[in-house]
Design a protein that fits this description.
Helices cover 49% and strands 19% of the residues.
């Protein structure tokens, strides 16, 4: 009944206010929902022309992905740039920063482990070229992982990166 639900919500509200352990559980639940999302990575391909129009061969490139979550967005950008670098024989300066505010989320992103579902819509050529099968799914190649600097960063309390060519936050 409505009274029972209200009572339960009030009880949980008091529990949440009083218990640091419960606050930690709530934070982890919220972060898991928002930071391990499997958004449509294909929208990142729309950035390809914008990024490449900056002429990275001449000036190098600095890209920051704020709120990187599970890291897939960062890896997609790295794969896209890797393909471009390979086809244009460009080995210039590239700095790809990927940040999130939760240390556990960033630690998981650094590992580059993804399930079949996470990568099923990536191009087959990328799956063959940039992933290897692991015990619990697939792992991004070391070469692609080396292109990205993952870090814990809270945009509300820490200064932003400077001298950027692109800031991507989804």
């Amino acid at each position: 009944s409505k009274a029972c639900r209200l009572s339960s919500l009030e009880y949980y509200g008091r529990l949440l206010e009083a218990s640091e352990e419960e606050q930690k559980k709530m934070k982890q639940s919220i972060l898991k929902i928002f930071c391990t999302r499997s958004e449509d990575w294909t929208s990142l391909l729309g950035l390809k022309e914008l990024i490449l129009n900056r002429n990275p061969e001449a000036n190098g490139m600095r890209i920051w992905l704020a709120g990187c979550g599970n890291g897939l967005d960062a890896y997609v950008i790295a794969m896209m740039l890797s393909d471009h670098m390979e086809s244009h024989k460009w080995h210039g300066k590239l700095k790809l920063f990927a940040t999130d505010m939760d240390e556990e989320i960033v630690s998981a992103a650094v590992q580059g482990h993804f399930s079949e579902d996470d990568i099923q819509n990536l191009p087959e050529t990328w799956r063959r070229k940039y992933f290897r099968q692991a015990a619990s799914g697939y792992q991004v190649s070391q070469a692609i992982r080396n292109m990205i600097i993952f870090s814990v960063h809270d945009v509300l309390t820490n200064p932003a990166f400077s001298r950027l060519d692109f800031l991507i936050c989804r």
